Amino acid sequence: MSAPYDIAVVGGGLAGASLACALADSGLSIALIEAAAFDAPTDDNMRARTTALAWGTRAMFDDLGLWGAMADDAAAITDLHVSQAGHFGRVTVAASEYGLPALGYVVPNVTMIEALRARLAELHHVDVIAPARFESLVTNDGTVTLQLAAGETSRTLDTRLVIGADGTHSAVRRALGIGAQVDDYEQSAIITIVEPERAHGGRAYERFLPDGPLAILPRTPDTCAAVWAVPTARAQALCETADERFTHEINAAFGHRLGRLRLAGPRGAYPLSRVLADRAVAHRAALIGNAGHALHPAAAQGFNLSIRDALALAATLTEQQQLRGAAFDPGAADVLAGWADKRRPDQHRVANFTDGIVRLFSNRIPLLGHVRGAGLFGLSLAPGVRADMARRSMGLALLEDMPRAASLQGAQSRQTR
Ligand SMILES: Cc1cc2nc3c(=O)[nH]c(=O)nc-3n(C[C@H](O)[C@H](O)[C@H](O)COP(=O)(O)OP(=O)(O)OC[C@H]3O[C@@H](n4cnc5c(N)ncnc54)[C@H](O)[C@@H]3O)c2cc1C
Questions:
Q1: What is the DSSP string of 218-282?
Q2: What is 7-182+273-415's CATH number, 3.20.20.140, 3.40.50.300, 3.50.50.60, 3.30.1200.10?
Q3: Atom of ligand 1 at shortest distance to CA of 166?
Q4: Which of 34, 192, 205, 230, when mutated, tests ligand 1's pocket best, judged by the most ligand atoms within 8 Å of its CB?
Q5: Position in ligand 1 atom list of the atom nearest CA 165
Q6: Would you say the CB of residue 225 lies under 6 angstroms from ligand 1?
């Protein structure tokens, strides 16, 4: 019988692959199990997907030595413009106010995943097992046995710690018996690419409409990524309608801040719900990324939060291994509980903030009536709230528990005083 892996990460998406890369120097043996083939061709809808990375996330990719492979495809967000349909107010935040070159960057998902997978291929301590689907698990005293399936064949794999990084509908979470609070927003996000008549100049726009938020983000010098949340039935209709009709609708929703928007990519719709796992750890197991918390994309925080979980877990495991030496057990309950306790405040803050702004600005999602009625957009212009929004959108305020990013946090504190 072969020795168990120290860690088995189930899910080779952005969160799982980032964790495996962050464990590069730990010396721990790692299996990364992914249901899809790593060399499977990417379809056009996936190619249109982008992620807005906070400045802090870029710093983390820099630390991992991965930013170089992403930088050429990254579009800097130099300022942010937030508005609400039917109201004159707006909030603007500029990177220069913080002495930074950018608030964040918009990077195609394919670029990130290709950079992560290229790195994984170089790491001798990571065995990539793909395509292989996690099916079930049995926990023993010292190990967990995973049941995997690849086509007609199945196999087992033993590990001392299993990490569920298998997305919103996590099979690992279910197999561990961890429940989840699911709030269906009854919205879907339409993703596409548009070409504005006027140059975006690095400005990202978020427009809150009664149906849901519309984000227009810099993607290349000439194009923008559009992420438009609308009720699911409307999303389906908008994906199926003719290009001219869709172009008319998105222009009507966004207005003319960038002149006329021309459709320049395929359209895809992603159903949106908030899924919060009841707990992040179980016996010899932990959840990261969407498996632990799937959020509405309105505040562009899902992956930014996930990479903080992943890097904090890698840091905890590496540090504890150095402290405990040969006696180190990566599945030790106190190590996992320590990580979960440390991450909980950030997870709660970001999940509540994101859900709060979605409900605040959407007429169709329940919120206490008197709260919405009380001139809330005015409230968002209050200096304290505005500064808080700016800090969260950059992910800087939440870096204090990331040892390797501590110097950046120090720099930010000095600049904002
Ligand atoms: C429209 C939209 C826009 C977004 N924009 C942003 C943004 O701008 N900024 C931001 O920070 N976040 C954003 N997010 C959130 C972000 O995309 C997610 O937080 C992030 O992708 C989560 O990554 P993950 O690895 O946890 O999950 P996933 O990306 O879902 O990856 C899970 C992986 O697990 C694999 N898998 C699933 N089941 C199994 C199994 N049984 N066995 C083996 N493998 C399995 C899957 O194949 C997949 O590769 C957005 C989300 C949406 C929907």
A1: E-SSS-EEEEEEEEHHHHHHHHHS-HHHHHHHHHHHH-SBTB-EEE-S--EEEEEEEEEES-SEE
A2: 3.50.50.60
A3: 34
A4: 34
A5: 26
A6: no
For the Cβ of 84 lying below 6 angstroms from any atom of ligand 1, the answer is: no
Residues contacting 111, CB < 8 A, separation 6+: 69, 70, 73, 74
Q: What is the per-residue pLDDT for 2?
A: 74
Residue nearest to atom 20 of ligand 1 (CA): 303
Give the C-alpha separation, 214 to 315, whole Å: 36
Q: Are 358 and 298 in contact (CB under 8 A)?
A: yes
pLDDT of residue 283: 96
Q: What is the pLDDT of residue 393?
A: 60
Tokens, residue 403: 């040892």
Atom of ligand 1 nearest to the CA of 172: 41
The answer to whether the pTM exceeds 0.85 is yes
- Domain spans in the chain, listed from the N-terminal domain onward: 7-182+273-415
Q: Judge contact between 284 and 4, C-beta under 8 A.
A: no
The reply to whether ligand 1 has any atom less than 6 angstroms from the CB of 303 is: yes
Q: Which residues, other chains included, contact 23 with Cβ-Cβ below 8 Å and sequence gap of 6+?
A: 7, 30, 125, 126, 314, 317, 318
pLDDT by 10-residue block (mean), the chain, 417 residues = 89 98 93 93 83 93 97 95 78 85 94 96 95 96 95 94 98 98 96 97 92 94 97 96 98 96 96 97 98 93 96 96 93 97 94 85 58 43 58 54 39 34
